[in-house]
Amino acid sequence: MYVLGRGESDLDGGTDRDDDRPPHTARIGSFLARDGSAGAAVGVDLDRPHAGVVFGKRGTGKSYTLGVLAEELADADGVVPIVVDPMGVFAGLDAVGGRVVDPKVRPASIPPSAWPDLLGLDPAGGPGSLVWRVVADAVGADAVDGEGGDEADSAGSEPSSPSLATLREAVAAADAPAETRRAAANHLRLAESWGVFDADAPPVASLAADGDPAVLDLAGVPDAAAAAVVRAVARGLYDARIAGDLPRLPWLLVDEAHAFFGGIADPALRTLLTRGRAPGVSLVCATQRPAALPSVAVSQSDLLVSHRLTAARDVDRLAEAEATYLAGDLASRLPEGVGEALVVDDATETAHTVRVRERRTPHEGESPRASRLSDAESR
Ligand SMILES: Nc1ncnc2c1ncn2[C@@H]1O[C@H](COP(=O)(O)OP(=O)(O)OP(=O)(O)O)[C@@H](O)[C@H]1O
């Protein structure tokens, strides 16, 4: 088997399973020959942490490919997939022991400085700065804000957290004009209505406690709340690994990843991209809008999987891999078929066309078809 992400010198000898798969390898598909026939099996290295992207325009198989990777991670020792599922298409992973989680995070997992932005308030304005101050007082200004700081400071078990009701009480009692207090309290009440904040939420590390996939179901969750969850989980996994609280290597698989860059979750995702591999946290971002991802997502990725892309700006983002072996007309090298992809392997500096294997678990990402609805009606 050809293993992506594993340089020649890393190659594991022997096999430990009933197929021909080397240990700690995800079997994702097979090489696709020019005549359309399937060639040798292709795997992805799971022994070491990686950063990866899965690109492709709508319906080309991105979520499906992410699901294949999740199945393989569920099957391997020492690793655990945590899937960010904004469209509600990964519930089928329960067939391999996965559980769909109604995401809850502690308010203290969002740093005080990020609260105004999270609530849509100007950090320099009255209500925004009041919320910032109140959260900082409640959690201790340097208890959680690890971004840009010394990682050791933020390591350790998750800090205890005030509830949003407690924060609202602190706002009400603050020395500020009534109008400012009212506006701040209203925004905190709105955040309460999202239903994702819970002072007693289990620590993020518990998502990865038993090695079975955890699917964070964010379907129908407002964008700001979903971003808060992604930030808390990404950062929480990173901190838990640094603190030694997590005995296995987590893989955070983020579908519709473009929605999480440029907002509240952005710093935590960038931390995983640039520094996640040292403590052993992998990140794989899937998107139909590669151009909406920051350049660092591609430049830091050692695994690139690209289904069909047509928009020039999206192909350009892929080209930023700066790999000389990608030179030439990249768009024309991207395969046409659903489930087919160009995979770029940094470890061996090669690019190959691959057909992603079929899922073992149900995939729920298929778009509804009017024709099928009318079929059903006429029956
Ligand atoms: N490797 C594959 N083998 C077989 N069928 C596949 C494969 N990949 C995708 N498909 C089929 O294509 C459909 C679309 O795939 P998927 O939902 O992953 O698209 P997507 O690129 O994530 O689209 P969207 O951007 O709308 O989420 C799937 O429902 C499945 O039927």
From TrEMBL:
Molecular function, one GO term: 5'-3' DNA helicase activity
Organism domain of life: Archaea
Region ranges (Disordered): 1-27, 143-162, 349-379
Residue span, AAA+ ATPase domain: 48-319
SUPFAM superfamilies on file: P-loop containing nucleoside triphosphate hydrolases
Catalytic activity: ATP + H2O = ADP + phosphate + H(+); Couples ATP hydrolysis with the unwinding of duplex DNA by translocating in the 3'-5' direction
Residue spans of biased composition, Acidic residues class: 144-153
PANTHER family associated with the record: HELICASE MJ1565-RELATED (PTHR42957)
Family: Belongs to the HerA family.
Protein's UniProt name: AAA+ ATPase domain-containing protein
Top-level taxonomy: Archaea, Methanobacteriati, Methanobacteriota, Stenosarchaea group, Halobacteria
